[in-house]
Structures are given as C-alpha cells and as structure tokens.
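Summary of Year 1 activities. Much of the first year was spent building the evaluation harness for sequence design. The harness presents a backbone, in tokenized form, and records the residue chosen at every position. We chose the following record to illustrate the format because it has been used consistently in internal testing since the harness was completed.
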C-alpha cells in the first residue's frame, strides 16, 4: 500500500474519488488531473520501451529512425520529433511515451477491460498536471506562458526541442521532470479516448519512481477485484466500451466478445430470455 492510495469499496465512492473536482475561480468544475487505468495495481508506470527488455535503451533511436524510414508515405502527418513519437506510440511501437486520458471513465475502462486480470485489484493513476507543470524547466514554462496554454501541443514543443538528444540534455541540466502533451487528432480513437501523452527526459526513467519523490502531484485510486464486474457492467451501461473507444470493426468485435462472454458465475444458459445481452 502506498501513502497516496485511495481504496474505494463501491461504485458511489469510486465516482466521488474520481470526480472530487473543486470549482475554479471562474466557478467551473474543471479538473487539473489526467488519468491512467491499469488492470493490476502492482504495475508501475514503465514505458513500452522499457518493457521491451534487453538493451532497450540502445534501440530507441533505431526504432524511431526505422519507423520514419519504412512508414507509408503520408502516414506520419509532419516530419517532427513530437509527431513521430505520437504516431509511433499510437500504433504500438515501443517508445518512452505513456498514454493518459482526461476522462476518468475512460481510465476506468482500461482498468476493467481485461478479464484475465479480474483476480487482481486494479488502479487508476491520477496526476495533477498543474502541479507537474510547476516542476518543468523555465524554457518550457515560458512556452506555455507565451501561448496561454495548459498543455503542450506537438507544434509548441517543436519550437524549442527538435531531437531526443536536446530533450535529454534539458533533463540533465534541470533534473528529472514529466511533460504532458496533446497528440494530434490522428483518428477517432485518439479523439474518443480524450488522449494525453507523457514523456520524460531519459529513456530509462520510470514515472512511478519519479512520483515517489513528488507525492504532491499524484494520487492512485485502488479498485478491489470484487468490484470489477459491477464497474464493468455499469461502464457498459454508460456506453464506455471498446465499440466507442476503438471505432471500427476491431473495437466492435472486442466489445461483443467481452459482452457475450462468460460472467463471474457462468451458470445461466446464453439463450435465457431473462438476460439482457445487448443494450
């Protein structure tokens, strides 16, 4: 158990924890948090590049270079580092980038979508972007201030940082930090998921390690395994499903496979008219 963990024991308490959003000075309810759902609370915030294993730190640049070289013409909308990173991450290339969302229920979907992990407690990592932003180097804070921006866009980042080497040097000079940016709207999947991405100045850095040194910028909501079926069914009722988050036939098939699949006590015949299968 971590000091910043919040254990919820019901749907109602979960919603309260996720939507505990104070009013802004404009009397609006606007959250400063981004969210990442994980099926197993024991998982940290390792990047897909780190999870690649082996000499992963030495293959980051060859991976991105080859991705750029062999990508179908026009499939990467701009020839900049930040667009390449976003497109590569979006299409499954191991990168130092992590995916987040501005939607608590989208994060909850990812914490409950994998039934093979229903025997484990899940979690939703919540990071306060405003607090994380205060730890950025001045050169990046100045970019945000000049644009009156809450988050970086890929275009804003490209003004100051053209390469991973430049980005890593900034981390060496300033110290570790985490940078959040909005990926370009490459397709409906990014838009529907309310996608945000994070990146750190070093291919070996792990965000969960960084958070231990900066507990003021995050909290983690722990989802007991016994709640997962209830949460999953209620998300389906709210239409927070693979069909909506992964538009297209693949997402539709994933949703139907899960929706028609066995429940926690699979004793009811699949043709029982008392079971409402399709919303």
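For this record, the design step produced the sequence shown next.
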């Amino acid at each position: 158990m971590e000091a910043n963990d919040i254990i919820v024991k019901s749907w109602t308490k979960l919603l309260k924890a996720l939507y505990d959003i104070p009013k802004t000075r404009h009397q609006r309810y606007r959250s400063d948090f981004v969210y990442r759902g994980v099926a197993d609370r024991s998982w940290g915030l390792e990047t897909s590049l780190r999870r690649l294993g082996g000499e992963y730190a030495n293959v980051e640049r060859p991976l991105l270079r080859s991705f750029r070289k062999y990508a179908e013409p026009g499939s990467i909308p701009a020839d900049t580092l930040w667009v390449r990173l976003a497109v590569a991450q979006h299409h499954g290339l191991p990168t130092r980038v992590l995916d987040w969302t501005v939607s608590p229920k989208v994060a909850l979907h990812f914490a409950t979508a994998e039934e093979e992990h229903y025997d484990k407690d899940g979690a939703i990592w919540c990071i306060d972007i405003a607090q994380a932003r205060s730890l950025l180097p001045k050169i990046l804070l100045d970019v945000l201030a000049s644009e009156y921006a809450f988050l970086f866009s890929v275009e804003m980042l490209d003004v100051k940082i053209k390469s991973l080497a430049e980005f890593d040097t900034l981390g060496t000079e300033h110290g570790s930090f985490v940078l959040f940016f909005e990926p370009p709207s490459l397709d409906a999947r990014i838009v529907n998921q309310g996608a945000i991405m994070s990146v750190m100045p070093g291919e070996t850095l792990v965000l969960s390690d960084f958070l231990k040194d900066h507990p003021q910028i995050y909290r983690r909501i722990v989802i007991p395994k016994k709640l997962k079926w209830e949460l999953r069914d209620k998300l389906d009722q709210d239409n927070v499903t693979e069909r909506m988050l992964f538009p297209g036939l693949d997402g539709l098939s994933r949703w139907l496979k899960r929706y028609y699949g066995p429940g926690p006590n699979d004793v009811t015949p699949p043709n029982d008219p008392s079971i409402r299968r399709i919303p």
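Residues 274-279 have pLDDT under 50 and may be disordered. Quantitative recovery figures across the full test set are reported in Table 2.
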